[in-house]
Amino acid sequence: MPNPRLIVGANLLLYAASFEYTPYMARSDVNLHLRSYGNEGKQHSHGHHQLVLPLLGKLSLSVDKTECDVEQNRAAIIPSGSDHGYSASEENRFLVADVPEALAPALERLPFFVELDSALLHYVQFLHSQLVNGAGSCHTEHQMLLLLIQLLQERHGDKLNLDRRVSVAKQFIDDNFHKKIIVAELAAVAHLSIRQLNELFRTQIGMTPHHYLTELRMQESWRLLEQSDLNIQRIADAVGYSSLSSFSDRFSRHFGKSPSHFRRKSKQSCRN
Predict the structure, then answer these.
(1) Which helix (H) or strand (E) holds 99?
(2) 194, containing H or E segment
(3) Which residues lie closer than 8 Å to 137 by C-beta, 6 or more apart?
(4) Contact 93, 116 (CB under 8 A)
(5) Cβ distance 218 to 255 under 8 Å?
(6) In Å, how far are 4, 57, 63, 152, 191 from 102, measured between CA atoms?
(7) Could you tell me which of 152, 125, 128 has the C-alpha nearest to residue 51?
(8) CB count, 10 Å around CB of 96?
(9) How far apart are CA 102 and CA 114, in angstroms?
(10) Is residue 224 within 8 Å of residue 230, measured between CB atoms?
(11) Cα separation of 149 and 53, whole Å?
(12) Could you tell me which of 227, 234, 215 has the C-alpha nearest to residue 177?
């Protein structure tokens, strides 16, 4: 099982109208399922990212007017909100992952169509086997999807060539997100003014230091809710929030549901 902290960091930097529906693995609003596509689907969009991974046959797909075939060793990454349609004229089957925007913001920066090397193809087959055989535990299903996203990001994401000062600030956040961090302290570590730090960080990372810190805390809190027995107050403490109400409010605004909602769903999954 991959290091959860590495997966969190990697994620910060990644509907078919007619289909055959089979059992799926779901962790909160994340799910992985099998689909077979019909002749043609109308252009549409949805409020989550989607990965379309080849198992059998070919799917002609258009994403924001970029067209390509998903087959053999080529997958599709459909960012949330992107218009897309499809057509298929032969027997086909695909592994489809629906991923909330907040869980994997890095996916919207990857190409719409990506080549799968042998390691990724083997991992797709492994996911397929786990899904068909129902072999995943209540905690591993979500992690397997996160690892897939991490692997895609490593192979197809832009290589970040960060300014040394931005890299220092980012590393400081990575190492200390569980503590109180103020912008003035971060700017001093990077030897920049607050304005310079915000501008450089936004240009090179794609978000401000405060936004990056919040994303890191939210991803880690999601993981702890699903994979630990810590109560919600302890989880808030573990990700740098001294106030439970502030943590719950921030989490609810970020993911659309309260921490207690995800904790209940995690416990229900473990019982099923």
Answers:
(1) strand 93-100
(2) helix 194-205
(3) none
(4) no
(5) yes
(6) 17, 31, 21, 17, 31
(7) 152
(8) 20
(9) 22
(10) yes
(11) 12
(12) 215
Instruction: Judge contact between 86 and 62, C-beta under 8 A.
Output: yes
CA pair distance 35, 40, nearest whole angstrom: 14
Instruction: Enter the pTM of the model.
Output: 0.59
Please tell me the distance from the alpha carbon of residue 77 to that of residue 172, in angstroms, as a whole number.
Answer: 31
Query: What are the pLDDT digits (tens) for 72-118?
Result: 999 999 999 999 999 998 999 999 999 888 777 778 888 999 999 98
pLDDT tens profile 43-73: 899 899 999 999 999 999 999 999 999 999 9
C-beta pairs of 181-190 under 8 Å, 24+ apart in sequence: 181/213, 181/240, 183/209, 183/210, 190/165, 190/166
**Mean per-residue pLDDT, 219-243:** 90
* Phi and psi at residue 50, to the nearest 5°: -140, 135
Q: Which of 189, 180, 211 is nearest to 198 (CA)?
A: 211
pLDDT at 269 over 60: no
**Identity of the amino acid at 147:** L
Q: Is 257 helix (H, G, I), strand (E, B) or coil?
A: coil
Q: Which domains does the chain have, with CATH numbers?
A: 4-156 (2.60.120.10), 164-271 (1.10.10.60)
Residue 59 has φ and ψ, to the nearest 5°, of: -130, 120
